[in-house]
Amino acid sequence: MPEPSAKPTEAGVTMKPGLRDLFWMTVGAAIFLAIILLALHFQNQQNPAAQLAFKAKRIELVERMRLGLASASEAEKSAVMAVTDEDSRTYADQARAATATVEQGRRDLENLLSPGGTEDERDDLAQFSKAFAEFQRIDKELLNLAVRNTNLKAYSLAFGPAAEALREMDDALGRVTAAGGAAGADSLKVTQLADGARIAALRLMTLLPPHIAEESDQKMDELEAAMTKEDQAVRRSLDGLTALVKQSDRGDLAAATSSFGRFTEIRTQIIKLSRENTNVRSLTISLNQKRKVMLICQDNLAAIEQAIQAEPIAGLSNHAPMMPR
């Protein structure tokens, strides 16, 4: 049988598809395919159940992050207020663990929002990430200070060994005075010098707690200058007693001098610890810088959740979805 030939036109001329026709046919097929794929994608995106589940998952992440922030803050404050190094370290570790949980939630949420979130949600998360980075920086500094407890250690020395050393000095000077020390006018002078040493030592002691509690370096300088004056007054009185006290009573005077020397050594340790000021500094950071950045982080998370809640779901009301249990 003869092969079929191209259909002739009315003029008897055969028409074959040209390159231009093939090009437009290919373009048309591609557009048609893209429309089909887009329609399928759109249909999937409009699936109410899938949208609701996606919304609930993101909201659950945000809620976990908010809870983690609150837990980290509570543990951090416990670390600052703890009275022992062991307790401070325990609470500090809890704070770090809670912060790490928030960071993991932030990453998970970022991964969810990259392909499926709105521009507002991504912007709010970027704001949170910036604030949370500052939160982590402050937290690291604060917790490193809190676990050292230098102010608490200074108080312990001041009201323990230091106070005991001055009590022993006071008792020894009391024995010197009771023994008469010297005869006549010199006896009165001994009493005056002993009382002068005891009073100056007590004044010096009263300057230690304010120094430990002080935040300002300048005021600590002023307190230390006052301590130096009282220290010199004690030493002058003890030197004066050495020239007046009878040989038989010099054992008690030596004991008083030794006790004051031990107090001076302890006082040096107290001032060094007080200067580090870790408890005061950590508490100040907690109540000021940390509190402010904490509020910013919580506001950012609230904005993210609000943006997620505001997403419309086809076929459903705009009410917030119930959180999965």
Q: How would you characterize the overall build of this protein?
A:
The protein has nine helices and no strands. It is mostly helical. The chain folds into two domains: 126 residues, Four Helix Bundle (Hemerythrin (Met), subunit A), CATH 1.20.120; 127 residues, de novo design (two linked rop proteins) (Up-down Bundle), CATH 1.20.1440. Helix 6 runs parallel beside helix 8. The N terminus and C terminus are likely disordered.
Compact description:
The chain has 325 residues and is mainly α. It has helices spanning 19-45, 48-81, 85-116, 119-146, 150-178, 185-213, 217-244, 250-276, 278-309. It is rod-shaped and about 130 Å long.
| Helical coverage, percent range | over 70%
* CA radius of gyration: 40 Å
CATH class assignment of the largest domain: Mainly Alpha
In the CATH classification, which architecture of the largest domain applies?
Up-down Bundle
Got a strand count? Answer: 0
Main sheet overview: none
Overall pLDDT confidence: 86
| Overall 3D shape | rod-shaped
Query: What is the number of domains?
Result: 2
Task: Measure the end-to-end span.
Answer: 77 Å
Judged by helices, strands and strand pairing, the structural class is: mainly alpha
CATH topology of the largest domain: de novo design (two linked rop proteins)
- How many helices? The count is 9
Residue runs with pLDDT of under 50 for 5 or more positions: 1-15, 37-44, 319-325
Order of helices and strands: HHHHHHHHH
Q: Strand portion, in percent?
A: under 5%
